[in-house]
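Colleagues,

Please find the record for the two-part complex below.
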Amino acid sequence: MGLIKKLPYYSEKIPGGAIVTTVLETVLHQAQAKSLWYLLFGTACCAIELMCTGASRFDFDRLGMFYRATPRQADLIIVAGTITKKMGPRLRRLYDQMAEPRYVIAMGGCTISGGPFYYDSYAVEKGIDHIIPVDIYIPGCPPRPESLLEGCIHLQEKIKKQKLSDWQEK
Amino acid sequence: MSEYLSVLVFIILGIAMVLVTFFLARLIRPHHPYPKKTVNYECAELPIGTSWIQFNNRFYIFALIFVIFDVEVVFLIPWAVAFGRLGLFALVEMAIFILILFFGLFYAWRKGVLKWV
């Protein structure tokens, strides 16, 4: 853990030190929220909507969101599509390989609950929150790009409300 | 000489910017490695063996010889497309070109590089 974790411990002892912490917290989380880079990860039809959102008509880039092809550089994994039982451990591995702080968006019905495969499928994971912690759920089958954009804006709001002490747990 | 001073300043500033950025990133980033995270990224598969393997350097010769055919195709396709308008002259030209390339191939063949020992 870097200095950032220890800073509140030191700065709050000096008078007015809490202001330093608060300002730093705001600046850091603002920067973080405005440069969410997501992992290229799509397993089903939601990925088409994800691609559409990334393209020029909906323009993900105006939220500061940009795709990365490796989990090492990604802050966010948008799980776009059905996660089968066989894909589950791989999703977990990808999540593990991402650097903290990391966030997860569950996009579409399949990732929330199994979606259309809830009743009659032995092969589909009934919701990815069995595998990885999810920050934002976006319902839809598949959700339109507008919903995805709104979900990402909600995630940004969530990031801006973080405390420095939250960083270890993410 | 004084013009080069600005170059020196730019070099120092350039190096300093990289160092300062790395230092700042070091201060604010969480550092939390664990075995599952540090495993090699292989598109979410578990890697088999180490990534520090050596390729047989004979692939190099094969890749080099592949270039013969590569170049040949690059020139043959536009030639074939425009062949109707070019006539006999182009045919002879292309025959000479292919002959030259095949000379290289025969040379490599005689040298025995096509044989995987």
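DSSP finds five helices and no strands in chain B.

Comments are welcome before we finalize the supplementary table.
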